[in-house]
Design goal:
about 375 residues, alpha/beta, 434 Repressor (Amino-terminal Domain), Rossmann fold, 3 domains, 6-stranded parallel β-sheet, 5-stranded mixed β-sheet, 15 helices, disordered N terminus
Length: about 375
């Protein structure tokens, strides 16, 4: 008889004789059917009668056989049933940041229709994760807001799977979905100027893949490797120059991680400077939330003393009555996910529209 959970084989007197590797053929021999019939009992039950399938599964239970090896089945099928997403921040950030969560929701909507799972691979600054990217068992990879020069990008490109880039970087020969960051930032800056403000500060999240926080000069901006932040800043500076403002008139402070605490610290640095701004353009709603908090803590009025703008039009922006840039975050995820499901390769570029949503933080 065969027994206990470790696939030991016993003789007729109940003495344990040794281990026995149970396979589909072992069960087929026990039931008196073909190996294909046993395989169908696990993976294609509609191909068998209920009575025959129960006989096969009953024999499998007696032999303590849980089913075909998933890894072997994956190799035979040529698909893993998973899509990988490379994140530029920690795993917890993907759930805490409203924009990142909306993007991943879009990816999930596209992939769940094909019963695909998502594998999230965090690659925050200081963590290479090269082996994780190289060994990830996935049918495709989405590179989401990664720095242009990160080494895992080349590893991903060398994998024999489709690779889609979202929000950055743009890599020649690969699909990309994003927004016209420069144009949207210029439009927001023009809106702030139209409200009569002239001393305008800017709060940005990471420009380079390090932990720097503080003022951003031209040299730092030229070293920028994150598409979203660098293109938005370029759009702002171009709009400022077009309005006759010099580079010195537009102070930029880098907050580091895209969290409200960083926005509050950067806003404090702007307000404590020699020329406090009468408007602060933040490159995300998260940073803007911190700016609003710091302004209130100083007893200043919004927007009478200081106007504030954000970016993304998340639920947080609506709660704060925040003027912001609306971009289709979830739709970006849907497109990236759909391209991966379809196995899209080669150059394909989709730039989604944005719009300025005017609310009370800049005056209606």
């Amino acid at each position: 008889m065969v027994g206990d959970g470790c696939n030991w084989v016993f003789d007729g007197l109940g003495h344990r004789m040794g281990r026995h590797r149970v396979t589909l053929q072992t069960i087929a021999d026990r039931v008196g059917v073909s190996r294909t019939t046993v395989s169908n009992a696990f993976s294609r039950p509609d191909q068998l009668s209920d009575e025959l399938r129960e006989r096969v599964l009953g024999a499998a239970r007696e032999l303590n056989y849980a089913g075909p090896d998933p890894a072997a089945r994956t190799l035979r099928a040529g698909r893993t049933g998973s899509i990988g997403v490379l994140l530029t921040e920690s795993l917890s950030y993907a759930f805490e940041d409203p924009y990142a969560a909306a993007f991943l929701t879009g990816v999930a909507h596209a992939t769940e229709r094909e019963a695909l799972s998502l594998l999230l691979i965090p690659v925050p600054p200081g963590h290479l994760q090269e082996q994780a990217v190289r060994n990830a068992v996935v049918d495709g990879l989405c590179v989401y807001t990664m720095p242009d020069d990160h080494p895992v990008i080349e590893i991903a490109r060398c994998r024999d799977v489709p690779v889609v880039f979202a929000d950055g970087p743009e890599v020649p020969g690969h699909p990309f979905v994003g927004a016209d960051e420069r144009a949207a930032a210029g439009a927001m800056f023009d809106h702030v100027l139209a409200t009569g403000r002239r001393r305008i500060g800017v709060v940005t999240f990471r420009i380079a893949a390090d932990e720097y926080t503080g003022d951003v000069d031209d040299e730092r901006l030229e070293r920028g490797v994150y598409r979203a932040s660098t293109q938005r800043l370029q759009g702002i500076l171009a709009a400022a120059a077009g309005a006759g403002l010099t580079r010195a008139d537009t102070r930029i402070v880098e907050a580091g991680r895209n969290v409200p605490e960083g926005g509050r610290r950067a806003t404090a640095a702007l307000l404590d400077g020699p020329h406090p701004p009468d408007a602060i353009v933040c490159l995300s709603d998260q940073l803007a939330a911190g700016a609003v908090e710091e302004i209130a803590a100083r007893g200043l009025s919004l927007p009478e003393d200081v106007a504030v703008t954000g970016w993304d039009d998340t639920p947080l922006a609506r709660r704060l009555d925040l003027t912001t840039v609306d971009q289709p975050d979830e739709e970006k995820g849907r497109i990236a996910g759909r391209w991966l499901v379809e196995g899209v390769r080669g150059a394909r570029r989709e730039i989604l529209p944005t719009r300025i949503v005017t609310r009370g933080s800049t005056g209606r």
